[in-house]
Amino acid sequence: MLSFSKLLWRSRRLVLAILIAMMLSPIILFTMDRAKDIILDLSNTNKVLRRQLEEEIYHVGTGCNMPKLDPFAENFTSFNRNLPITRCRGVDWVNCVKSECQISQSILRTTKDVVCMYRYIIYVEDQNSYVSNPIKVVGDEIFTLNKSDHVKIECTGNPINNPIVNTHWTGYKAGFRQLPTVPVPPNRKDSYNVMILCFDSISRNGFIRNMQNSYKYLTVQLDAVILNSYNIVADGTTGALFPILSGKPEEDHVFTRRRYDNTRKKYLASQKFIFHMLKRYGYRTAYFEDMPWTGSTQQKFTWFRKQPADHYLRSFLLNDVEEEETAHRGNPTRHCMGPTPQYQFMMNMADQFLKLDGKKFCFTLIVDTAYDNMTLLPTADDALVSFLKTLNTRGDLEDTLVLVMGDHGSRYSNLRNTYQGRMEERLPLMAILLPQKLKKLRPMAFEALKRNQGVLTTPFDIHATILDVLDLKTKIDKEKIPGTALPRAMTLLETIPKSRSCGEAGVMPHWCACSEWHSVTRTEPEFAHVGRVLSEYIQSMTEDVGNLCALRKLSSTEWVLHQRAIDHLSRVNYINIKELTGKTDSLKILDDFYQARIVMYPGRAVFEGTLLYNSAGDYYMITYRDVSRVNA
Predict the structure, then answer these.
(1) At what angle do helices 236-246 and 459-469 cross, to 10 degrees?
(2) According to its UniProt record, what is one Pfam family this protein matches (predicted)?
(3) How do beta strands 193-199 and 400-406 pair?
(4) Number of compact structural domains in the chain
């Protein structure tokens, strides 16, 4: 018999019926259990999500009225603190530029008899790498990277003014080894480069508040288009980034989720991501992320067995952390890569990548500035302005699509406890700089992008837009949410109807910021009941590892919201029961959504979840994708 966690959640009426059946007849109990088992097994959610939707789609084309949120609302600016700029100590002895590493001239002026031992950091898979045997380099000899982009270096020397003293330096350096690439097809010589710079946990409003110089430079000097109704489609970084980088929702990768034992030996398929596709067109690709010990993909999913891009920092940074174990545990140097702030190191890598020959696609995720504490974000403001100025003055913006974005808003800060914070989590930054050449060749595309500034847009649209810019429109996913006329992914270089709703865009009710919810009062029976159902579901999610986890219990229900199911397509909400049970009848009335915030103990764990209530069957439906942990 399936565990309670894998079943539809029944309301108190059905629970009472089961209790009566238990008392009256073992046969009735068996029959009831069979009925529960065949209704829906949530371990097969990925399969269920793809089934034909039968229910009529209500109010398709109603549009999306986003909430009006003031970035400088008093209760939000009060959270900000002026922090000192991140300052890092030390001096790098070695500099790496592209594929060449060499001792710094400033070190040679003060130190003699310099000898360095280089060890390659060799990637095997995401969780496995090794360090090669040392290679000796003397004085100002150039070391050329060929086996890896990354090296561990140990140098010794004698100060010129005190030759009897031996000095020592150890560090990690990254560059870009020479790589063979597929020749660019003759008809694609004029295709564009792509540079995506993503900041973790930064909403559009959060960017306006915390990076005012960058916002001004983007909008005033560079004429960037900031999407005002850009809405995430799923939880966390993977929920936001998988649609951009693969064109597919997170659930298409669900069978590699780490919490399921039967997926432990499976890996994320690197060929599903855009890096792999672009290599076939002669692109050199990079995927940079600065906090591999959290891992945007590895935290929720099993890892890549083959690195997803030509240039990939994971093994490099994991080795650096192993060398200094306290680097990510409150140590003052945590935010530094040697003498360089971590965010600056990431921008330097992205900048250097753009200097390489050939066609280039780079995705850079800077987690360090906001993952634990978004008040660190302003420290990167001037660095981002400088990065953008460099791209502009060097001429990169002529032939490069640049996206400056957030994956989602803050998920765990005190801001998240407010209504505006909850909305901002769903509305990240998305700033778009089209290549200047494209704007000249396709002026109507730029006009369409500006018209779409206030229309509901999603990560699926960003993937489609990237492909459109790269003249790969035939690769855009044509999938439509059943019952709608619009494709789920729409390029922003063509006009998107203002009437587009969350349902048409593939945004679940839990994440739709333009939903209209109504408060349920504490005196209404649904208030206590929804909180209890949500808490029982959350507790059930750890049943398979129950021996490792404390039993969580409901401490309080903070609020409950209610919405009629008239505007949304939740692909888990419309289920062809005939396929699951063999019966001819189907669920035809899917009435209400409820959303709740609850507190569970031990540990004061705060969760939010969205449940579908079916009034005809008197039960609730919920999946793990509609539950968020909102404190850490």
Answers:
(1) 30
(2) DUF229
(3) parallel
(4) 2
Q: Are residues 477 and 531 in the same domain?
A: no
pLDDT surpassing 70 at residue 569: no
Per-residue model confidence as pLDDT tens digits over 119-141: 999 999 888 899 999 999 999 99
Q: What's the average model confidence in pLDDT over 316-334?
A: 61
User: Is the separation of the CB atoms in 107 and 95 below 8 Å?
Assistant: no
Angle, CA of 15, 16 and 22, to the nearest 5° = 90
pTM reported for the whole predicted model = 0.84
* Domain membership flag for residue 175: no
Instruction: Tell me: do 196 and 330 sit in the same domain.
Output: yes
Q: Determine the pLDDT at residue 169.
A: 97
- Rounded Cα distance between 378 and 386, Å, is 14
Residues 420 and 557 in one domain: no
Angle between helices 26-39 and 12-24 (to 10 degrees): 140
Residue 44: domain span: 4-61+515-629
Assess if residue 110 is contained within a domain: no
Nearby residues of 208 by Cβ (< 8 Å), 6 or more positions away:
71, 72, 215
Q: Per residue in 377-399, pLDDT tens?
A: 899 999 999 999 999 999 999 99
Instruction: Give residue-wise pLDDT tens across range 143-188.
Output: 999 999 999 999 999 999 988 889 999 999 999 999 999 999 999 9
Same domain as 526, residue 468 = no
**323 and 204, same domain (yes or no):** yes
Q: Is residue 529 part of a domain?
A: yes
Radius of gyration (Cα) for the chain, nearest Å?
Answer: 27
Q: Which contiguous run of DSSP H or E holds residue 18?
A: helix 12-24
Flag whether pLDDT at 583 surpasses 50.
no
Whether 266 is covered by a domain: the verdict is: yes
Rounded Cα distance, 318 and 315, in Å: 5
